[in-house]
Amino acid sequence: MKTVKRIFGIIVLTFCVSCGTYYKMVTTIARDGSAQREVYAWGDSAFLAGDLSRNPFMFDLTQDWHISPLDSAMANDFFGTPKSLNIRISKHTNSIENFSKELQYNVEKQSLVAPEESLVIKKGWFYTNYSLKVVYKKFQYEVPISIDDYLSREEQIVWTQGNFSQCKLYNGSEMSDYLDNINEKFMKWYVHNCFEVSFQLIKKYSDKQDLNADKENIFKELKDNMKSEDEFGINPEAVCNFLDYFYRTTYFSKLNKIHSEELNKEYNNVFAPAELIGNVISYEIILPGELVEVSFSSYQSGTIFWKIDGMRLLFDDLTFTAQSRIKNRWALMVTGLLLIVVIGSTVLIVKNRKKKI
After folding, report:
1. Is 281 found in the same domain as 262?
2. Is residue 342 part of a domain?
3. Statement to judge: residues 155 and 123 lie in one domain
4. What distance in Å separates the CA atoms of residue 147 and residue 186, rounded to the nearest whole number?
């Protein structure tokens, strides 16, 4: 939780706003594969009064969604974080695949809003098996410095999705050191990108052509001259001010004043996916019958709980799977009757043979 708060601090420094929102999504799958979905959120008084322009959900509320304000706010535990919800929307469809296909949303929110959901139903003699697969795709964004330059593939998954299969032999102290090391490298990656994006934008609007030759020294001196907590405030203005210091000039601060609107807009566009990190979804699903296998989740009384947020989608897709089955009671009864008939017939045949002997 401390890490999430620290990342939120970065986002606040970058955008001056916090956009974290909590959603509860409950999906019930029927035996025939049809699905009922309910999504809960917190709506302001204007939305509750009917102003749809205040829509608190991450997608458009089209006519196929039924809107139901709750009589009273509902408390929900989002994996240790209590939040209140006061609005519910619901929709029924013939197949779970249709939910994402029929949604309307801004493309930058696609990863969180429109997962790839599929349900395979296999009917056997004794059981009907249901196999669910849900894939939330990684955020689509481009930054100049790849995370691969700072974190290994295993470290990326541990840091964002919490797969600790590689750390089973670590004790608490070793795990703490391991995570602190990842945290340090993750923050260095973020700060490096803040500088690189700012530097490239300044070059774009500058008529000085020799900046690249000094770039590494500029970055090193900038970090050395800033307190660790100030590194997260590296942006075009901060880099322009430091370039003035580095080159003993006032050219770059004047350039920032002239082009501040363009610089800030383009800088914020690069880091726009960070605004979605604070969105948290409690993905709950109820499958028909008895649960047989569930990945990366907790479940209670037949309901599966998965946590989805922007942090988990920074570096890779997030895939969940679950399987359930229903006993075909009629098949068991027929099989039982057939066994009785077969056993009874066998006994009669044996008895008749013994009489003839």
Report:
1. no
2. no
3. no
4. 8
Instruction: Give, rounded to a whole angstrom, the gap between the first and last alpha carbons of the chain.
Output: 83
CA 153, 155, 161, 162 torsion: positive or negative? positive
Residue 356 located in a structural domain? no
Residues 132 and 168 reside in one and the same domain = no
pLDDT digits (tens, 9 = 90+) for 61-118: 999 999 999 999 999 999 889 999 999 999 999 999 999 999 999 988 999 999 999 9
Give the chain's domain count: 2
Which amino acid is it at 98? N
* Cα atoms in the Cβ-side hemisphere of radius 13 Å centred on 194: 24
Residue 123 domain boundaries: 2-141+274-330
Cα–Cα distance for residue pair 347/332, rounded to 1 Å = 22
The answer as to whether 352 is a domain residue is: no
Residues 293-335 have pLDDT tens digits of 888 666 666 789 999 999 999 999 999 999 999 987 665 566 6
Q: Backbone phi, then psi, for 89, in 5-degree steps?
A: -120, 150
DSSP assignment letter at 137: P
Are 108 and 23 found together in one domain?
yes
Whether 101 is covered by a domain: the verdict is yes
Burial pattern 219-244, b for ≥16 Cβ within 10 A else e, equals beebbeebeeeebbebbbbbbbebbb
Residue 294, CA distances (Å) to 29, 71, 82, 119, 202 in order = 15, 34, 25, 14, 50
Query: Which of 240, 273, 306 is the last residue in one of the domains?
Result: 273
Strand partners, 236: none
Closest to 234 measured CA to CA, from 145, 138, 314: 145
pTM for this entry: 0.81
* 289 lies in the same domain as 316: yes
The token pair at 197 is 């994006």
133 and 153 co-located in one domain:
no
d(CA 140, CA 81): 27
> How far is residue 262's CA from residue 91's CA, in Å, rounded to a whole number?
42
Do residue 7 and residue 133 come from a single domain? Answer: yes
Place of tokens 């991450």: 58
Q: Give the single-character DSSP code of 231.
A: G
